[in-house]
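Cross-posting from the modeling subforum.

Setting up a comparison between two proteins and wanted a second pair of eyes on the formatting. Protein 1 (sequence, then structure tokens):
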Amino acid sequence: MDFVSNVGLRSQVQVNEAGSWVELGNNSLNGYESNVLYRNLGRAKTVNASMFDFADVGYIAGADCIEDGRAAVYTDIEGDGDLDLFVQSFGRPTRLLVNEGEKTGNWLHVKLHGTESNKDGIGARIVATIGERRIVREISTTSGYLAGQSLWAFFGLGDAKRVDQLEVFWPSGQRTVLADVDANRRLDVREGDVSATAKR
């Protein structure tokens, strides 16, 4: 531990003097921590019912590799409604973790096509209303350290078989409203249109 005790710390210097850093070259000092993958178990049944319980299922899912993970991006690579993960680790090839778990709920994927706004709808906000519940997604190109994200907006709908109202707030200031949108589909929404078409 003596070797790493001062890594990243500058040596003590006097005012107006230059300090020095420990030089490590192209090495990682993260150790051998396993990556984790958490499964949402639903509302907590103990202390605070407004919180959620999670369980680490990395070992079961094969996602607990000891490879110094740096970035993770989720997308639906198969178009089947569940989300898969791309994981980028230090000095390793990118890994694709395909979700082969049990299908437990309904879903909706939305892709925006801007006309007055930018063509990918970056900066748009999408609000799905199901009864009293509202789910909000924003279209962005970044999602963390060294990672981009899909331009699709992914909605997990649980038991709901349709979205009562889907609103898109475009960067241009326009607003698109769709009613009674069926679940378990990919949906294209074009700025300025009042209807949307399913895409399989």
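Protein 2 (same layout):
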Amino acid sequence: MAQKPSIPKGTRDFSSLEVSKRNYIMDIMRTSFINYGYQPIETPSFEKSETLMGKYGEEGDRLIFKILNSGDFLKKTDIGYLKEKNSLKVTSSISEKALKYDLTVPFARYVVQHQNDLTFPFKRSQIQPVWRADRPQKGRFREFYQCDADVVGSKSLWQEVELIQLYDDVFSQLHLAGVTIKLNNRKVLTGIAEVIGANDKLIDFTIALDKLDKIGEEGVKTEMLSKGITEEALEKLTPLFNLKGSTTDQLLALKNILATSETGLKGIEELEFICEAFQTLELKVANLELDVTLARGLNYYTGAIVEVSPPKTVQLGSIGGGGRYDDLTGIFGLKDMSGVGISFGLDRIYLVLEELNLFPPTIVANTKVLFINFGDKESLYAMQAMAVLRKNKIACELYPDSAKMGKQMGYADKRAIPYVILAGDKEISSQSFTLKNMKSGEQSECNIQQLLDVFN
């Protein structure tokens, strides 16, 4: 007996309704990207392994899907690597390509490769799927779309301000009020690591701190201890977990904590610039909130870090995030090319809109009218009419088979097609059509112009 078909864990099939809802979100994003001056690009689904590996930290590298070399991929592999069970060396010899983990690193590669064709500052938008070998759970998939906006070639903090506005603009159009845009700066985290004497453990420090909302303060401290950060250092870290008050109060307290760190004070200065801008600029639906424990575990952030949380009534992780990455293109040979960008989590935004019932009821692009099939002569007459309707952007279709009337009507009912058109010998003779409203049952005789008037 044939095995029941299935799909890999962490992937999904999408129904026509789900595709329509996803397109609704992406269309709003694309419109906002264009309004803010971001130019669309696309990059391949997979990259050379050397492009991706080592750019996301140790945890990120483990989540990259590797692609086996074509042909006899074991032929050139050193048998000693297999006997040693040395997975790193085996992998490098049998896999030269990998599915992209995010859109940012491939974008950096794109900028370097096409630098002579681009006008800087270059503002790019990109909506494409990415893949991560993560453990699937609610809102976390192995294949998912990222929707990114980035600027490279400018160190101006006005770019950070604009990207926060872009977030707010998209969520406003989605009628998603109450989202929180959390803001921090990697220089602040570097400064904290310096002050507590753990600057040689910066990556371990930020990765652990980034898990605060998942494992709590004690869990973070336990993980830091396991990474070699001392009890004395953690004692100095305690005030960080207890920062309260207004943004101004928190920044003032941070200045005292980081008084001996030039890098940390520079980070505070950058945070102050952004926060002061939004004392004048208004956000429509989002709340901007300082969160000095926000780390985001990716190694390439060097300045501002942002993360978007859904409304508090929705129990779900972040629905967006990003930050500044001054050194990212440098890894591909292009120095002094600062960049900053954000990403929208399409799948999680979808779940939030679904839970809050925020999708418009008319979101599905459905067939407006079904022509009943009475035979070949009648179908040809229907086809001529459908050409006119389609030219006027009216979605219509002909039932493909000359089946019983009940079956054709049942098809229209199940598909929620609001109108059917009956065109037999009588209608052909008078060059007319009998239009039936499926909801009310009312019927009327129309010519082609009257049909256009009804649907427009």
